[in-house]
Description:
The chain has 16 helices and twelve strands. The protein is α/β, with parallel strands linked by helices and 448 residues long.
Amino acid sequence: MRPFLVMQNNSDTIFAPSTAIGGAIIVIRVSGPDSRLIASQLIHKPLKERMLTYASIVFNGDMLDESMAVLFLSPNSYTGEDMLELHCHGGLQTFRRVSDALISLGVRPAEGGEFTKRAFLNGKMDLTQAEAVMDLINAQAEVSLRSALYQLSGKMGEQISSIENALLDVRSGIEALIDYPDEMNEQTSDILFQLRSVSSSIENLLNRSRQGKYLREGIKAVILGRPNVGKSSVFNALIEDDKAIVTGKEGTTRDLIDETIEWGGVSIRLQDTAGIRDAEDEAEVIGIERALDAASHADILLLIIDSSQPLSEDDLSLISRTVGIQRIIILNKTDLPSNPETVQFCASLGADMVQTSCLDLSGIKELKNKIVSVAEPEHLDATSVTNIRHIRSLEQALECIRRVEPNLDLDCVATELREASHFLGAITGSDIDEQLLDRIFENFCVGK
């Protein structure tokens, strides 16, 4: 239980569809103290716990549907409360009739994420697991799905809790020194050693956070280059569709074109952009500004060079301004005779380089593999931090610990470490206020 969070009134019985309306079957969830009573008022036959039973739904003598019903009794349910699930025919009118009956019986529609929020408040899962529910639903690729499943298993929460407990031991030692200062010299070195161990554990998690972000949100790859080097052709080859217009005229692409693909189990968010050059046309200038802005927020740049032509001033300018940024140099149009100086110069840059032809699609598979390698999916495990909120809380906890110095006043040390514990507790939910909790769950869909 989380006694400090018993500020929300869970005496209401709630309902919501947990599957989409309009399919063959719709599952309507009911959770709360009146679930068994509701079952007896709608299903006029006994229901055995956790056993799916064929039953008619009847209200005020009116047949609403022929359904399957199952009853879960507290604490052996998703929310930890008594729960009823009605598996009805999926039409909108059926859902409306059953919903009207539930409302007439005093059951209120659930808010977004309220079932999972109740599960958290009732100790069925920690906050990392609760947030993993939506990550699981929103996963766009196999690896992000696996990442969400790892977090849902509770392993991330266990690791954070272990760090919390280690920090609590340090805090206990500090409090003891405040009460018994005569033991200062004897205990200080042990406490500092323990604190360095806590700091190292947090740093290890943060070192994996960039990889975790890729796994959760995908890799943002922005295609950049001067006009007519084949940017849109490469974009179309990568997505295996003719989404971007390709012509021989320069400046065809004026705006950003987005598409998400999956490769190697990882989601790649591709953006095709306007060709970079000195332009006078207002629409093209705006397109170039948007291209450069997109490039500044990319995880990796795909810098395209026409391998059949000498390097232009625009090529050299883009090569120069992207130094120090994670990038792949793409020597495109290899189906044409290559320019030796262009190929030699690009090879000398020391960056990842791929040679491609959009005519025969050579090099496209290799390019996808190089993009995906950014996420290092082969190293995915339960310790990968994928949630931005978790990353920020870990950073804040580490900042507090790093402010602790050997000669710092003990009361100040205790304050810093108490604050660090708060930030760690905000990850698992062991120390979190209701306002933040509401903000986390407000983005959940209804029925979860």
